[in-house]
Specification:
With about 325 residues, this protein is an alpha/beta fold. The protein has helices at about 10-20, 50-55, 110-120, 145-160, 190-200, 215-225, 250-260, 270-275, 280-290, 315-330, and strands at about 1-5, 25-30, 35-40, 60-65, 85, 90, 100, 125, 160-165, 180-185, 205, 230-235, 265-270, 295-300. About 30% of the residues lie in helices and about 20% in strands. A hairpin with a 2-residue loop joins strand 5 (about 85) and strand 6.
């Protein structure tokens, strides 16, 4: 249930209105917007008489029930797009920032080299896996804390904000200097982790699970937002289908639907979707064409020797070419890289 407040309402009046609902055991979230301010009630609101509240509360303009199971991320509650700024990157309808870097951090020299090259090409954020969830227990699991230190070194040398994946709640203290905390596809419905990360006060990149619906992704975002996380970037990274020629099937329709249903930015990861580096550039351009808010692309200085996912990683020259193409195409869509 949401209450749309009248224009010119003071913060003191809003606080008093919210406190009244919280005293009744409900959670009340204030969603300011350019057109109006909304107060969203979460909990058992069946007993709330909306018409009576509108009649008796002078600050309330009108009320409506939110029929979707996700509330805070819904465009019913907030019509305006959430604009997220990380370092020099901005996620908005007029921009198209690119995140890039290796699937896994392998050495300080490697990640610093890649960071310098992708920054020169126009990437806005550096991604790299320090902790790696792998299907096989015998596969390379990442460098852990050492990998995080290498990422922070690359950040210091280039100024690029860093994106890296968290695996469980015990790692939270290690992520103090990480700019964007990634919830990976395998953890999308790890609800305890979602709640803990939601309380970190960080920007979160939430990947869609490999077999999850769009609504389930939105509900996972709702977990984060219900814990106070305001800056959430959704990521479509392909879903598992009966097709075997690609690693996953990139669901570009999900980008369009997500942007219709919620106010959060949506980016695309064509590397994990395809699993084949030659498909990454065309899928990246397709993501731009359907209105995605950015990309996350895997790059490596020597993909043939990569310890993780080399087949889907662009080499640095290929990344340069992709960025040149995007810089040419983005203005045609009213976007800047």
């Amino acid at each position: 249930m949401i209450f749309i407040l009248k224009r010119g309402v003071s913060q003191e009046q809003v606080d008093k209105f919210v406190a009244g609902w919280e005293q009744q055991g409900l959670s009340a979230f204030v969603r300011p917007g350019t057109e109006h301010t909304a107060v969203c009630l979460i909990g058992n609101t069946a007993h709330v008489d909306m018409e009576r509240v509108v009649e008796l509360e002078p600050i309330v303009d009108y009320a409506r029930r939110v029929t979707e199971p996700y509330k805070l991320v819904s465009r019913t509650v907030q019509q305006e797009n959430t604009i997220i700024r990380v370092g020099g990157a901005e996620y908005s309808p007029s921009t198209f920032p690119v995140i890039s870097g290796p699937c896994s951090v392998e050495s300080e020299e490697q990640v610093v080299l890649i960071a310098k090259r992708i920054k020169a090409a126009g990437a806005r954020l550096l991604r790299g896996g320090a902790f790696k969830p792998r299907t096989s227990p015998y596969s390379f699991q990442g460098l852990g804390e050492e990998g995080l230190r290498f990422l922070l070194t690359a950040k210091q040398e280039t100024g690029l904000p860093i994106v890296t994946e968290i695996m469980n709640q015990t790692q939270i203290p290690l992520f103090e200097d990480v700019d964007v905390v990634q919830i990976g596809a395998r953890n999308m419905q790890n609800f305890d982790l979602l709640k803990a990360v939601g309380r970190m006060g960080k920007t979160v990149l939430l990947k869609r699970g490999l077999a999850n619906t769009i609504e389930e992704l939105l509900m996972s975002a709702e977990y984060l937002m219900s814990e106070g996380c305001e800056n959430i970037i959704l990521c479509e990274r392909g879903i598992r289908t009966f097709e075997t020629m690609t690693r996953n099937t990139l669901d570009l329709s999900a980008v369009v639907l997500l942007k219709q249903k919620c106010h959060l930015p949506v980016i695309v990861d064509p590397s994990h979707a395809a699993g084949i580096r030659s498909l990454v550039p065309p899928l990246s351009k397709a993501a731009l064409a359907v209105g995605a808010d950015g990309l996350m692309v895997e790059t490596h200085n020597d993909p043939a020797k990569a310890l993780c996912d080399g087949a889907q990683s662009l080499d640095l020259d290929m990344f340069d070419k992709l960025m040149d193409d995007l810089k040419t195409r983005a203005p045609l869509e009213g976007r800047t890289i």
